[in-house]
Amino acid sequence: MDRIVDEEVSAFTARDGQRHVIVGFDARQNWLPMANWWPQNGPFLYLLRDNVERPASVDKNIWSSVCAALADLARPEDAGPLPPLWNDCDRLLRHLAGKEGMEHRNYSVIAVTLAVDSLNPEAPEWLSLIGPNAPDLGSLDDRWRLLGYDVANPKLYSGLTNAPYHTEHEDVFSLQVRWAKHLNDRHLFTTFEEAKGFITIVDQRVRRLAPFAVFGLWERA
């Protein structure tokens, strides 16, 4: 097959030693009780590690945007091509500053990056994020700390926290034994290598939403 993704893609080497491309920025809420937004489990299990109080994810359905939680902070349509993310972090910060009372809200300003060495270069779906027409959002400075790694598709659908395991039809216990020890208290992978290894699992389990790759989730100090 032809190589779709160019090896010379404009990426920066982050503090974790991996090559990343910034996908966008957002503010994610930390105040809503999980019961208000976490899906009902039923026969399904969403998390491989069961002692996580508040999972983090690039997926807006798992970790919701402040701009979605507060109606009067609605994200402008021209903020970027991949809602809820913003292309301009400074513009996002000004938007938040314009909302009275935000200093009393508990939220995280985050950056989402794509680890380019984790993706399948033959998959055209990645062109929307790192193709020639994708915006170059630069690099992250020392104000950003890595929360961990998610595994998601080009539309930021997480295969780690938003692809429920059916406890009656899957060997969930074996998956927990293999992978849970590599997840931190936000249910993100602690190392790039383990996150990359998990891609094979997700590609098989959720084929209709493939391809998947490793995304870095960073929090601004």
Main attributes of the structure:
221 residues, 5 helices, 5-stranded antiparallel beta sheet, single chain, globular, alpha+beta, two-stranded antiparallel sheet
How would you describe the overall organization of this protein?
By secondary structure, the chain is an alpha+beta fold. It has one domain. 18% of the residues lie in helices and 19% in strands. It has 5 helices and 7 strands, in the order βββααβαββααβ. The strands form 2 sheets. Strands 1-2-4-7-5 form a 5-stranded antiparallel β-sheet. A two-stranded antiparallel sheet has the order 3-6. It is globular and about 50 Å long. The protein starts with 11 loop residues before the first strand and ends with a strand. The mean pLDDT is 91.
Strand content range = 15-25%
Order of helices and strands: EEEHHEHEEHHE
How many E strands? 7
Distance between the termini: 43 Å
Radius of gyration: 17 Å
Order of strands across the biggest sheet? 1-2-4-7-5
Mean pLDDT: 91
**Major sheet size, sense and barrel closure:** 5 strands, antiparallel
Count of helical regions: 5
